[in-house]
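Illustration: FkbM family methyltransferase.
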Amino acid sequence: MNIIQDIFKEFDNRREELEISLEEMRQEIAVYKDKLLLYGAGSAGIAFLYFLRRIGLEPRFFLDADRSKEGKECEGVKIITPDRVVEIAGEDALVIVCINTDGKRYCKSFDEALRIGGHHAVYDKLREAGCKNIIDYTFFRRCHEFFQKEKYNAPSCSDVGLMIKHKNEIADVYEWLSDEQSKDVFEKILRFRLLDDTLEIPTMTQEQQYFEYGFYERRTDDIFVDCGAFNGISFKTFLSENNNQFEKYYGLEPDCVNWNKFMKYKEQLPEEIQKKMYCIRKAAWENNEGIRFYSLHGPGSFAADIGKENVETISIDAMLNGQRASYIKMNIEGSEKQALKGAEETVRKYKPRLAVAGYHRTEDFWKIPLMMKTYREDYKIYLRSYMNHISFVYYGV
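Result:
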């Protein structure tokens, strides 16, 4: 029996003390029935909203510090600014902070969680506005039933039942990891999700994210495929790390606001670099059929059936049309598995270095490395965390 199986066995033995029932959770927040507010009209807030709706609870408002959102609606829920909470909902409203956080939220009771607090800047702002009852949405991860069958991205709260169902694959991935630090990170993420969310995950500086050159050598002929180009930030790091030396760059970004920022960044680059850039306003996907897309016009835009627009998609295999890629990076808000599927031919033929986010959906934790190994059995798999348990990347080398 390996260490992963031991963790699952410990979870089985301690499950009664670790888990609260759905009914317990409902009772804790049902007293705020008409005064339930969600802070953060972003991807985590949207995911939590749909978890609530599934059990028959509806928040009265979204709160968001971005004043450009005031008066608008997010999924049918009106958005107000925090300074209006007491005026509209009263000081005794319950505000659930829906921001993905690496903070520690392990509390044994609802009262304790309300007392301890969370995001300092957000909590301070809400308390200054007169709010008395504030809690992080991560407190509710103790209710495993609530987070079953996740539909949208809530990386701070895992589907524990799904992990139990796939514990053998999780154990296999642990054995494949190529160094002790990867194994340590993997083990602690699993313990964090199942046993103890006060654990510190060994964390690297975010400046190194996607470009861990300790695993492989720099090269001047890189063909870099950047899935989730955002505003050009990853390409900027790539250029800095490689002294502007590369053969070709493909940048894919479907969000229109992010795309415009990306184009402004491109226009500022030297002409000799721009000539080697191929920028594509499409989402990386498994096919070219298009998807529904939820644009947040910043970080976090994601593919979803509740998306307000259709965006074009392209598979990496179709985009390259048999040509080489040497480096593929993916951080695309839960679409990594589909994009990897669309790159299967390229990965099998050219074995590019891979840097793929593994945290947006619960099953990404084991499915991303499983897909890497399925496509190229000779890949070495590494894992590094960049924000405790909620931002980690698998590297295939």
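Reading the tokens back as a structure: The CA atoms of residues 107 and 113 lie 6 Å apart.
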